[in-house]
Amino acid sequence: MTVIHENDYVLLSLEAKQKTWLVKIEKGKEFHTHQGFVDLEQAIGREYGSRIKSHAGTEFLLLDPLPSDYAHKFYHRTQVLFPKDIAMLILFGGIGPGCRVIEAGTGSGSLTASLAYQVRPEGRVYTYDIQEKNTETARENLEKVNLDQYVDFKVRDAKKGFDETQIDVVVIDLADPWEIIPLTTKVLRGGGRLCIFVPNWNQVERAVTSLKTQDFGKIEIFECLKRDIIVGENVLRPATRMIGFTGFLLFARKLV
């Protein structure tokens, strides 16, 4: 049985409305919602998946946060990737336990957190960002969910190169990946994967041109769409709104 401890982060879910909050469990702390306030101290010692009521009698769920929850619950200074794109980067990039991953473009750390979650406990994420403020925000976000221990944060322009070698995967989430692609050939192991996210056709074209002039093969490009399904009493249908196009995903393999 996995129980909630003081200082743990919990996903507080209002199930009826599919609304959630990422909250830190602390003694003497109340979390106020439009459905009344919740005494967070009452969550200590309870099992994840338990129910808790607000002072107004509304029932909330106490859930353990997943990487998909981090993307939009973290404080962010920059635009973050959607979970659907992060999931594809991880799956098609073959990112799993023990992998050594370089991330070019830390941002607010939502992708960094998902990468760290996947490579733990023996793997490592080396994340580069030119802005110190971004790095500080990302570090604080990952500390909330105890994932910072699997990450090396580096304040440096990725265009100036990387410190590591024999890397399994490089992930680029920057506007000009073609400037960085030649540098990745020096750090990726044979067969290593390069994953790129960009939002515009012209960026895709320039990135592919660069890939073809470097030692890369098995180039794949696609986009991912997500449509929710509404489930309720006498209702089961697609939502009228959806997260449609967000960007293009590019994947390639380092050849030797």
Please write out the topology.
Blueprint: E1 9-14, E2 19-24, E3 30-33, E4 36-39, E5 50-53, E6 59-63, H1 67-73, H2 83-92, E7 100-104, H3 110-119, E8 124-129, H4 132-144, E9 151-155, E10 167-172, H5 181-184, E11 188-198, H6 201-213, E12 216-222, E13 229-232, E14 235-238, E15 248-254
Parallel strand pairs: 7-8, 7-10, 8-9, 10-11
Antiparallel strand pairs: 1-2, 1-6, 3-4, 5-6, 11-15, 12-15, 13-14
Helix pairs in contact: 1-3
Oligomer: single chain
Sheet with the most strands? 7 strands, mixed
> How many strand segments?
15
Radius of gyration: 20 Å
Please, what is the average pLDDT?
A: 92
> Any guess at the CATH architecture of the largest domain?
3-Layer(aba) Sandwich
Query: What is the rounded distance between the termini?
Result: 48 Å
Molecular shape: globular
> How much helicity do the residues have?
10-25%
Q: What is the CATH superfamily of the largest domain? A: Vaccinia Virus protein VP39
Q: If strands are numbered along the chain, what order do they take across the biggest sheet?
A: 9-8-7-10-11-15-12
Written as H for each helix and E for each strand, in order along the chain, the element string is EEEEEEHHEHEHEEHEHEEEE
CATH domain class of the largest domain: Alpha Beta
